[in-house]
Amino acid sequence: MVAELFGKATGYCKGKGGSMHIADFSIGILGANGVVAGGLPLIAGAGLSIKLRKTDQVAVVFFGDGASNRGPVHEAMNMAAIWKLPVIFVVENNQWASTTPQGYACALGDLCQRAAGYNMPGYSIDGNDVLAVRETTLKAVAAARQGEGPSMIENKTYRIRGHFEGDPQKYRDQAEVLTWQEKNDPIQRFEAHLVKAQVLTKKKSKVIWDEVKAELDAALEFAQNSPYPKPEDALQDLYVNA
């Protein structure tokens, strides 16, 4: 994945996709999409494929609060509902669509209320609570596998970084950003929960952090040392030859 971000030939998409088009069909990742809300019609198709093939798979799509106001979201949700497709619509409500606050762009307080318009369950939860996300997701997965159709999950969270690297973020109060970052970090919250439950010790935690850092360092080194695609590679992977 890091190699793909670097535009290297060893990346998931051979350096041709970049950050917006990460895909790995071998583990069920059908691909991110550079078009806002572009993934929802694709996931409806994936859900229909699952239903026709009669497998126990469940298709999951992630989109933001900004994307939730676009037409393809509603078209895909309606299609999934009328056909009872095994699909979970997960909206990451991080409260900012680029520079527009969610409270301004949407008449609803909870985006999950839209689920009722398509006769599907809608859940609004603390998206920074790992266990709440897991519990709700398991419920939605079980319903999909039992033929009950799609669900919508709204994970309420916050975007602590800019919309893009170098974003001056003059549209919001930095004190608010710091409050979320320092007091509501999902990793820190879950780590504290595990320590309190005596599942994790500070010593074990350090070992995990060190292992993750080593893995990331190795990924970075792999990407940096990988070759760029050759010019002639631009004409490969475009069409299927008969």
Overview of the molecule:
- With 242 residues, the chain is α/β, with parallel strands linked by helices.
- The protein has a domain of 168 residues: Rossmann fold (3-Layer(aba) Sandwich).
- It contains eight helices and six strands.
- The strands form two sheets. Strands 1-2-6-5 form a four-stranded parallel sheet, sandwiched between helices. A two-stranded antiparallel sheet has the order 3-4.
- The protein is globular, with a radius of gyration of 20 Å.
Task: Please name the defining characteristics of this protein.
about 240 residues; alpha/beta; four-stranded parallel sheet; about 10% strand; globular
Backbone structural class: alpha/beta
The average pLDDT score comes to 94
Would you state the CATH class of the domain at 33-200?
Alpha Beta
Q: Count of helices?
A: 8
Neighbour order of strands in the largest sheet: 1-2-6-5
Q: What is the CATH topology assignment of the domain at 33-200?
A: Rossmann fold
**Total count of strands:** 6
CATH architecture of the domain at 33-200: 3-Layer(aba) Sandwich
Element order: H for helix, E for strand: HHEHEEEHEHEHHH
Distance between the termini: 30 Å
Describe the global form: globular
Low-confidence stretches: none
Rg, Å, rounded: 20 Å
Range of strand content:
5-15%
CATH level-4 homologous superfamily of the domain at 33-200: Thiamin diphosphate (ThDP)-binding fold, Pyr/PP domains
Helix content, binned percent: 25-40%
Largest sheet: 4 strands, parallel
